[in-house]
Structures are given as structure tokens and as C-alpha cells.
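User: Could you walk me through two proteins back to back? I'd like the raw sequence and the C-alpha cells for each, with a short line separating them so I can tell where one ends and the next begins.

Assistant: Of course. Protein one, sequence then structure:
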Amino acid sequence: MDYNWIVAMGGMEDGGGGGMFTLLWFGLVIAVMYLLLIRPQRKKQKEHDKLLGELKKGDKVVTTGGMFGTIFAIDDDKGRIVLRINDQTKLEFLKSSIAARVEK
């Protein structure tokens, strides 16, 4: 069988060092993805976890939905926080929905 037409189209030619170049290229792409995407996201998640661990009653916070309030109670077992919005209104949120602490 004549395979010259496959070689002419670049299908079965001898690559020489092409495999090593491809491996290095994949390594470079993975390293860039790690540095630009994965590492900053992990850092942000660690900061958020630290924030959630440091919350205490009386802290002024904002939720991911944009609601401001003061922490009235914390239930770490269920992962919930009760926020006091005003004197008569108290709402219960998941602890993970706290976006940031608001400075006094």
C-alpha cells in the first residue's frame, strides 16, 4: 500500500523532537493557568474563610445579596448567622453568604 499521500499531508512524518516540544507546551499552559486562575482563587477563598472564622456578635457585615446588618447571633453547628437589620427585624442567613465586614 502506498502511504506517500499521508506523509505529504503531514500525517505520519517523523517528528524528531516534536513530542518533547508538545509536552513542554502543555506544561507551560498548565503553569500559566495555575498562576493566573487557580492560585488567586485559592487565596481569595482562604481570606473569606478567615473572615468567617473571625466573625463575632456585634460585627457590622454585608451579605452577598447586598443586605447590611449587625450580627445578632451565630450558630456554628448549623452554619447560620442571625443579622439584626433594625430594632424589630432579624433575618437568618447562611454563614457563607457573608461577603465582608463593614468598618464601624
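----
Protein two, same layout:
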Amino acid sequence: MTPAPRPDLTILLAAPRGFCAGVERAILIVERALAKWGAPVYVRHEIVHNRFVVRSLEAKGAVFVDELEAVPDGRPVVFSAHGVPKSVPAEARRRELVHVDATCPLVSKVHHEAERHFAAGRHVVLIGHAGHPEVVGTTGQLPEGATSLVETVEDVARLSPPDPGRLAYVTQTTLSVDDTATVAAALRARFPAIIGPRKDDICYATTNRQAAVKEIAARVDALVVVGAPNSSNSRRLVEVAHAAGCARAVLVQRANEIDWDALAGVRSLGLTAGASAPEVLVEEVIEAARRRFATRVEEVATTTEDVHFNLPRALEG
């Protein structure tokens, strides 16, 4: 009996997608630390928000911990790409731990902005998501009470700063470009004297990946974002797809999480990945599709990226 022909499926593959320069740098820092000091190398929090990456590094000898107190004396520790409060490296120095900071340089830039505004006597408003490690790290650059967190326009309406005439704002780097612009506009409307960043704090990779999703969202029946549920930039890609006209956008960590039955009748599928998701996981989704469909893959590129960040001096060479 001749098997039924597989239905046709066109995959529009968004580009850019997947790893950004900050994620590549953070992973390489852990690998170089293992090569230099041997296993185990401890890492405070997930180096990036992706379980596949974390498990791959664990297999090489990395040990992920929640706090420094779990790091034994005499072993090196790496701080995650999301950034840490100042109290963390201070504690590492007190304990004389060898420590390497894998904070993304673009997150560090936001830290420096916040410090500059505080030094100039301004109260700092941070646009971001409560509890996200990057937000915890940024607020932890300044004394308690020196920052206020807002996420929505409604938060801006409720904001009661100590001196409305001396305000500045910074943002988490992995937010929705459009949503953040709306919140920033509300801040400027309510506090005309507020000072914003010279250039948008949202990182180039987040911006580029969102633009790529906007390009394909209205052209596909459904869209899959490969990324972790605790990855801010990955979750924003789903929201951007919805807003750009693709109602059937989902976030998955691996191909085996895709509900293929729910995609019955889909003839065009958008595919992208968050900035902490490796390309191998995108390829895994494509291979899973090919087992079920007569699949054609078309890459839709909106820009190219050539950003590179240097390693910390302790690991260069």
C-alpha cells in the first residue's frame, strides 16, 4: 500500500535568530574558565536562560548554584550574563574567591548609566520586569530606594518619585521594543524633565530578532519560537508575533514540545529562536517538521550581525 503523501509545509526561518554576542561570550567564559582552572567551575545562576546550554556546560564540569554560599572556598565562580548586584562581587572578594564576570557588556552599559544618573543626584526609573535577574542586577548597582521599577503605563501613572524634577530612566535590555517605547513615552509625558538614554537600552539582538519576527508574522499560519519560558527576550518574540498578526505563536524549549496535531492544516510556519537558544535546537525543529511534512525552508533575513565582545582579561589568550 502506497503511503499517503506528506502535506506541504513552507518554513519561513527568521534571521537574525538565536545566539547573540553576549550569550556567546558568556558561554565561552565558562568554557575558558574550565580549561584554565579545571572542574568544577561554579556559576551563580543560569549562565543564560536555556536548559540545553546549562546541561551542556554541566557535562563539561560547570556547577550551577543559586548563591555564593554554595561555592566552596578555593574554587572559581562565574557570574551570569544577566548581571549581578554589587553585593555579589563584594562578597566574592571578601571570601577571596577567584571570580569572573560574564555580564553582557550591553547590560553593563545600563549599569553605568544608572550609576551616572545617581551620582548626578537623579532618582532612576527602571523599565523592566520585576524579579528578572537583569532587573535585580541593575537595581543592585545603587543603594536601596534609589530606583523605582515600572513595567506598564499604569505603573507610570502610580509612580511617586522623591523629586519629579530630578529623574532619569533606563531599561532592561530584553524588552519589547514597542511596549517599552509606549512606557517611555508615558514617562516623558508625565515627567517632562526626565532624562533618558542617549540610545535605546534595548540591545541590538533583541531589537533585531523582534524586527525579523515582525517581517514574517503576517505571512505564516503559525509561528514557533525556540527558547526558555524564563527567557525574557524569547517570551517577547511570542508577544511580538501576536501583535504583528500571527495569532498562533508558541514558545517551546525543544522540538518534542511542539503539538503537531494542533498544527494540522498549517501550510506556512514561522520559526525563530531567542538570543539564548542555540541553532542546533532550531535544526531539531526543522528535522521534526521534515518527518511529517514535505518541507521547504526559506530564510528571511532583515539584517546581519557582526557584533563581537572581548573576553575578560583573566581569560584572554
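The chain has three domains: 8-19+204-301, 21-103, 105-190.

Let me know if you want the two compared in more detail.
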